[in-house]
Amino acid sequence: MSTQSLSEEVKKRSTWSICIGVLTAVLGCFLIVYPMATATITTVLLGWTLIFVGVAHFVFALNSQTIGNFFLKVLFSLLYGVCGIALAFFPIAGVAALTGVLGTLLLIQAALLAATAFQVRPIAGWGWFLMDAATNLLLGSLILKQWPSSSVWAIGTLIGISVLMSGISRIMIATKIRSGAADVEHFVRAA
Question: Which of 22, 45, 50, 20 has its CA nearest to residue 159?
Answer without folding.
Answer: 45
